[in-house]
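Example S7 (structure tokens).
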């Protein structure tokens, strides 16, 4: 299988702090890849490099074999890489459809004039929500009235709805109850089944083992090993994280 995303020898320092040290890993299309490690292991920094927030000091990040040179997260989105951050980046006083099309508004143009296509965006938002079978109320509902799981679903729907190829999720169920966690996990599986690659950052080892196809382990800014999920155990992954077992 051809790699969708390749991280090759990526390093990044902030002053004297070496946040990433020669990190290499690959992501496959149509798979859920988990990235695990203790707090401070470098997971979030690596995600910020992939999503265009940070630029590595060394190494390359390639999509379909083509090196990426992002100057901003907008460049990453244009390349088909979407990120669902822990804070979700939703505007509570806007509706579901307004959040889905934030900074991607559909307009009618007449010469130099541009008018928002509100009905078109509402129709497309309903289609996006229905396609992903998201447990979200009417797209005209304001986000502040949604539950935590519904908000997470809106953020995932936005990430998956614009021809994205890779969806990065940072602790997508950390603040959710049991039932809402199960719904979001079903949604993540649906993304994979629809052909998206998913990069899942999670401290929930049961979730990692249940959802992922591949696991990469980070420790102290380095990628210390990778395993096919079906060929490893939670105990082995923990041992890689703590350093009790070498790659």
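Recovered sequence:
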């Amino acid at each position: 299988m051809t790699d969708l995303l390749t991280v090759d020898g990526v390093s990044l320092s902030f002053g004297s702090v070496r946040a990433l040290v020669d990190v290499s890993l690959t992501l496959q299309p149509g798979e859920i890849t988990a990235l695990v490690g203790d707090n401070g292991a470098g997971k979030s920094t690596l995600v910020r490099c992939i999503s265009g927030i940070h630029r590595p000091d060394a190494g390359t990040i390639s999509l379909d074999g083509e090196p990426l040179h992002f100057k901003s997260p907008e460049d990453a989105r244009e390349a088909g890489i979407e990120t669902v951050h822990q804070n979700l980046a939703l505007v509570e006083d806007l509706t579901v459809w307004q959040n889905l099309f934030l900074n991607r508004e559909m307009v009618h143009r007449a010469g130099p004039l541009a008018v928002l296509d509100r009905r078109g965006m509402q129709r497309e938002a309903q289609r996006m929500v229905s396609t992903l079978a998201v447990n979200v109320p009417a797209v005209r509902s304001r986000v502040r009235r949604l539950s935590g799981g519904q908000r997470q679903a809106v953020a995932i729907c936005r990430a998956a709805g614009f021809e994205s190829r890779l969806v990065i999720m940072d602790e997508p169920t950390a603040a959710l109850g049991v039932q809402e966690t199960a719904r979001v996990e079903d949604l993540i599986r649906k993304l994979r089944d629809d052909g998206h690659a998913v990069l899942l950052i999670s401290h929930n080892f049961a979730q990692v083992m249940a959802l992922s196809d591949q696991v990469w382990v980070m420790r102290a800014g380095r990628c210390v090993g990778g395993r096919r999920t079906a060929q490893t155990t939670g105990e082995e992954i923990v041992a890689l994280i703590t350093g009790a077992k070498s790659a």
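Notes on this example. The first strand starts at residue 5 and ends at 14.
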